[in-house]
Amino acid sequence: MAAGKWGESFLKSGLPLEHLTHVTFRSLEWDCYPQFEYSRRNSDRAEAWFEVDLVANCPSFNRSTQLSMLVECKYHDPSRYWFFLPHQAAGRWQFDDRVLNCGPFQTLRRPRADTLLRIAPLSSSAIVVSEDGTKQDNAAYTAIQQVVNGFVPCALSWAFSYNLDLEVEQPGVTALVPVVVTNAALYRLKPEVTDLDLIRSASGPAEVADQVDWTWCYHDVPSSLDAQNARAVRRHARHFPELVYRFPKVEGAMYSFVERPNWVAVAHIRSLAAVVQSIADAFQAVEMHDVKRLLGPTRRAGGRPRRRRPTGDSSGRR
């Protein structure tokens, strides 16, 4: 087999793209956990195991909240383009709470603020076309489906399990963002293009669309995923009551994840480092509550509040 043929075949395995994604996160000093596994019902309604390529945790915290990303990688033939529709600037779920997805506690001071979505173009409804404009198998849709199906299981595993470990007196908070990484060129249709004849006469994608390094892709959770997420949340509450009911409001926060995620960051591998840094910088600029102040007196593993020592120290130190 010719060297070029072997290399292209190896690239199609997806492993090199996963490797480059992992290397990119590690170069930014993120902690990486490859192959996040979870179980859910498959198309035959039988319980089966699935995986998402990577969970990456930012080394820096915003007060007590840590930014994490659930990442799915999708290698595609370079002659294929991913096309997105422009998304309305005043649509549903356009605020930080639905982008950052904090759990097990809402630590955003202004959850309805629109900060994160301002740093990239908004889009929806991805399709894939070839260089000549012919519609192809929708690998973009497949990648998005893979990451959104794993999102709630990942949130339950990290935000609503690991962060509430009984061995840790002070719980942590995770802000979880789903991400798709690809090598395919990303295009977003120009909002001002409204004439079919103009599109028909186009000789290339640049005449009707803007090429972007990345985009926030809107995801409206369908009924099937809503039901799947609800089953996962109910099962988690049954299996881990000592975690779910250890602190007030955890159960409610957990059920708020049933209709998530609503925004997926879709990025080209060449721009991934800049994209990750841009999201991390925007996250650090968001005003956050400290979880210690939200909870008040800390609780022991048995659920009893620890009494504060009588002291005149106004700093709140114990």
Describe this structure in words.
- By secondary structure, the chain is α/β, with parallel strands linked by helices.
- The protein has one domain (3-142, 151-294).
- Helix content is 31%, strand content 27%.
- The chain contains 10 helices and 11 strands.
- The chain has helices at residues 3-12, 15-27, 96-100, 139-158, 196-200, 223-239, 241-244, 250-255, 272-285, 291-295; strands at 31-41, 47-62, 65-74, 80-86, 102-103, 122-130, 173-182, 185-189, 209-212, 214-218, 263-268.
- Strands 1, 2, 3, 4, 5, 6, 7, 8, 9, 10 and 11 form an 11-stranded mixed β-sheet that branches.
- Mean pLDDT is 91; it is low at 299-318.
Measured distance between first and last alpha carbons? 69 Å
> What is the number of helical segments per DSSP (H or I, 4+ residues)?
10
Number of domains: 1
Mean pLDDT: 91
Structural class by secondary-structure content: alpha/beta
Q: What is the count of β-strands? A: 11
Percentage of residues assigned to helices: 25-40%
Order of helices and strands: HHEEEEHEEHEEHEEHHHEHH
- Name the beta content range: 25-35%
Task: Describe the main β-sheet briefly.
Answer: 11 strands, mixed
